[in-house]
Design brief:
CATH topology of the largest domain: Rossmann fold
Number of strands: 15
Number of helices: 16
Number of domains: 4
Strand content: 15-25%
CATH superfamily of the largest domain: P-loop containing nucleotide triphosphate hydrolases
Strand order of the largest sheet: 8-9-7-10-11-12
Helix content: 40-55%
Oligomer: single chain
Radius of gyration: 28 Å
CATH class of the largest domain: Alpha Beta
Shape: elongated
């Protein structure tokens, strides 16, 4: 379908953008970058973009958002370009959407509707489909503004005494509400299943590393580079939607679970935040969060602010961000050599920042080493002897410790030279009842 993309720029909003908030100074986006992002969203559902327009709105109109003069200009542009769809990169009320469709004789979709359409196409799992359907129904519930005048006042009951029946819109709204309730019940079951999966993962204490970031920051490409998974990774907004988890080993041998989550975006519809909360809670469960940023995008500062705000809404405060988040400055291969060197030097001088290229692999080994160090804590070297009645712990040792040496003894015991973090050492101590360095071969376990 041929579509025209419209980016309204509200005059008062432009003046209010400056300043600072709870997450520090607010970084504003240029109008051109907003238009480029809106056109990218439209291309994500295979629309043919005939033109993109930036429209200044001095005073938002309750009925149409933009003024009548601009409406006439856009109508002429639609006729000239033979376009039947207008995408407005701004929330529209149901009345505004209906009035603009009448004025332009074309279908009108606002930013929320466009993102919902993309998510509907990308969802592939049962959970993702349920979440998108629920969000879409909640969005549509307030937009039943179709013309049902021929059915509006059907009489109910028999004979001449029956009172007026419900309108067609009321019937549609009731049907929508019934479907919403049904989907919410199905989602509750999915949430319980996800909670069971989390409980099982806790029993096998593998740390969880979650990738978050603005959409198209390169999370899936980095995920594939690290884990060898075949997750769809394209230069497209919201190329992947459903979360993917993979188990992998770090360079020192410890097993971790990597989680690739849905990309974030500015002005994420509240319907989606609510519907996808069960999925986003995977981030809350993570021991370490990799915040992937596209350093080749001039607006990466504003995008980072959007991601941090969503994380804050999920309950990850500033203190937690310092201890749980590593910023991954991705796509450095796209930078000019002098900019690349400056970015790499800046990253090297900051804590919790790693400069990488998921495409070329630059910096990925250093990132993996940093993840291993963050998850391992203080590593201690020790020798442990497992007596015959404790040999069932051997798989646990290989899964959770770095084994530098092993000796199978004649008495049936096994000696290990290990490197352990404090957390792992405490866990093994609980399992054995004792853990201390062996200074001679005749350890008295009694």
């Amino acid at each position: 379908m041929r579509a025209l993309v419209l980016v309204p720029v509200l005059k008062q909003a432009r003046g209010a953008d400056k300043g600072s908030g709870d997450l520090g100074p607010v970084t504003t986006r240029s109008n051109e970058s907003r238009l480029e992002e809106a056109m990218g969203l439209a291309r994500a559902i295979d629309l043919t973009i005939v033109k993109g327009l930036i429209v200044t709105v001095n005073q938002p109109r309750p009925a149409t958002l933009i003024g009548s003069g601009k409406i006439e200009e856009i109508k002429a542009e639609l006729d000239a370009q033979d376009a039947g769809l207008v995408i407005v990169d701004h929330p529209l009320t149901p009345v505004q959407q209906r009035n603009l469709e009448k004025e332009w004789n074309a279908k009108v979709i606002d930013r929320t509707g466009l993102i919902l359409e993309i998510f509907g196409r990308r969802a592939s799992t049962k959970e993702g489909t349920l979440q998108v359907d629920l969000a879409h129904l909640n969005y549509q519930k307030g937009r039943l503004v179709r013309s049902w005048t021929h059915l509006e006042r059907q009489r109910g009951g028999a004979g001449f005494m029956g009172g007026p029946g419900e309108t067609q819109i009321e019937a549609d709204r009731r049907m929508l509400q019934d479907r919403i309730v049904r989907l919410e019940r199905e989602l509750e079951q999915v949430v319980r299943t996800r909670q069971l999966h989390r409980a099982k993962r806790r029993k096998v204490p593998h740390p969880i590393v979650a990738l978050v970031g603005y959409t198209n920051a390169g999370k899936s490409t980095l995920f594939n580079r690290i884990t060898g998974a075949g997750v769809l990774a394209e230069d497209m907004l919201f190329a992947t939607l459903d979360p993917t988890l993979r188990r992998m080993k770090l360079p020192h041998g410890r097993t971790v679970i990597m989680s690739d989550t849905v990309g974030f975006i500015s002005d994420l519809p509240t319907h989606l935040v609510a519907a996808f909360r069960a999925t986003l809670e995977e981030v809350l469960e993570a021991d370490l969060i990799l915040h992937v940023r596209d350093m080749s995008d001039p607006d990466n500062g504003a995008q980072s602010g959007d991601v941090l705000r969503i994380l804050s809404d999920l309950g990850i405060d500033e203190k937690e961000r310092e201890s749980r988040i590593i910023e991954v400055w991705n796509k450095v291969d796209r930078l000019e050599p002098e900019v690349h060197d400056a970015i790499a030097e800046k990253a090297a001088g900051r804590q919790n920042v790693m400069a990488v290229s998921a495409i070329t692999g630059e910096g990925v080994d250093a990132l993996m080493a940093e993840i291993g160090q963050r998850l391992s804590g203080v590593v201690t070297e020790t020798t442990v002897i497992l007596p015959p009645d404790k040999l069932s712990l051997i798989p646990w040792v290989y899964e959770n410790a770095m084994v530098d040496g092993r000796e199978d003894r004649d008495d049936g015991s096994v000696s290990f030279d290990l490197r352990l973090s404090e957390q792992q050492a405490s866990a093994l101590e609980r399992k054995l009842g004792i853990l201390q360095p062996v200074r001679d071969e005749d350890w008295d376990w009694d």
